[in-house]
Amino acid sequence: MTENTTRGPVLVTNARIVDETGERPGLHDVLLDGGRIAAIDAAGGRDARATLAHPATVVDAAGRMLMPGFVDAHSHADGAVFDPEVQLALLRQGVTTVIGGQDGVGYAPGDGAYGTEYFAAINGRHPNYAGGGIGALLAGYDGTTPLNVATLVPAGTVRFAVMGRSTAAPSPAELDEMRELVASGLADGAVGLSTGLDYVPGVFADAAELAALARPVAAAGGVYVTHMRGGYEANSAAGIDEIGAIATASGVRVHVSHFHATPAIVRGELARLAEAGVDASFDAYPYTRGCSILAMPILPAELTVRPAAEVLAVLADPAERARLRADWFPTITGYASLGPDWPAMLTLAHIAAPEYDWAHGLTLAEAAATSARRGASTASAEPIDAIDFALDVLVASRLEVNVVMAVQHERSDAELAEILSHPAAIGGSDGIFLGRHPHPRARGSFARYLSLLVGEQRALGWPDASALVSGRAARRFGLGERGLVREGAVADLVLVDPVRVRAGASYAAPLELAAGIDDVFVAGVPVLADGALTGATPGRGLRRARRAVDAAPTSEGRA
Fold first, then answer.
1. Does residue 219 belong to any structural domain of this protein?
2. Residue 49 in domain
3. Do 232 and 302 have their domain in common?
4. 285 in Cβ contact with 187 (< 8 Å)
5. What confidence tens digit (pLDDT) does each residue in 183-222 have?
6. Going by fewer Cβ within 10 Å, which terminus of the chain is more open, N or C?
7. Are 235 and 456 in contact (CB under 8 A)?
């Protein structure tokens, strides 16, 4: 499919042009036509206007920066991108492309049933995918959404398609079948392979299995993207060791998902990979706390790999619940750096049970105490602790619960800036849009990258910020001629007010939209105008484009 549009031309006037190669002096007029940047001229000049074959829509940038559309390299909007509220939240941050299929669990290949069940509280349901593989999934985005969607092949979904809920190592025949599914997904346009090694069934896959799946990714020029094993933070070294082994055995380029730890750990572990000859990048959102399904940090993987109905039966059984309380819960120390006081560090973000609406925004410890008080007027009411409350809410929601996860030592803005100014950093929100009290990263990350790193911490200039939020991802994941403002490039573009841009979302008010980005173009079509959706749907499923090199363009490469 060619990247074009039937919409008429657009002339953006009086714009500052900024991309990762630098800022052009002065103001410019930029003509968008046929899905591309057709011409760039000094403001008020005749060249851009002279190329017009038809009257154009004129958008006055009034000195705002025209930047390449932002790429969210780690998104859980795969199914949510059809929701206008989600579209608005992303476009108000300047995001024009999201990369889904993350953490090893997704809709394709297969019929989407496993990913929908297990990641119900992360990805939700996909409104139009019912099978057909990566090709069908990508085709479902063509002309149906204002944003572009690229996808990874999720290794856990591949394992489930071949091995079901087995926790064993694959047989040679099973491994061959899994490799074929990965290769097929890449041939259909996937940008790489993802793993989620703290989720099921990925937790049961060893490095040898993953290296075997990564070989067709290396051959195709894709990227191995991993939620590494072990919980990050102080536990990062073991996960990085495994990544290095997989990359060495397969020759694949790697990308570490949501790499959150201290600056010394992040920079030190990336240096170790580089010393081992591993081509590595990473994403990290500009917040400290995490977010995931509640079942992952508090239940054994051997239980959660079973069908949801069986898990629910175990959690509802008093004898099984007593066994978990006696044998399992004393052994958990909390995911990542939650620590033994985990009930006070998990805030309920999404609960798919209306009777628990009141608990959104409370920690498990607070919700358990509130639940006991709410039942105090009932003669039969008994005190409830955080374990019982967590299991009760999982049963009532059929496991569809996600939580914001605090850490014991939250990083300062200066530390976040030190991490995100690393030259291998790529913007990724890990955004989850489900829930009445979600993590603010979904609606705030990309605006906060700009306000924090450029405006407050002065860790990056605007060109380097453009590389972080756009250019590096476009190159690394083979997203076609995106990531630069030059003639001939795909006209995915954002007008940014450098003074006003900021995130509205916070932990206290996570649903607020970003400010300072009011006009966005996808394939040259206005999809956000004056801060509102236009209703246009020029987005498409992006198929991986091969690139000979993954290197930043020089200033000589500017249009």
1. yes
2. no
3. no
4. no
5. 999 999 999 999 999 999 999 999 999 999 999 999 999 9
6. N
7. no
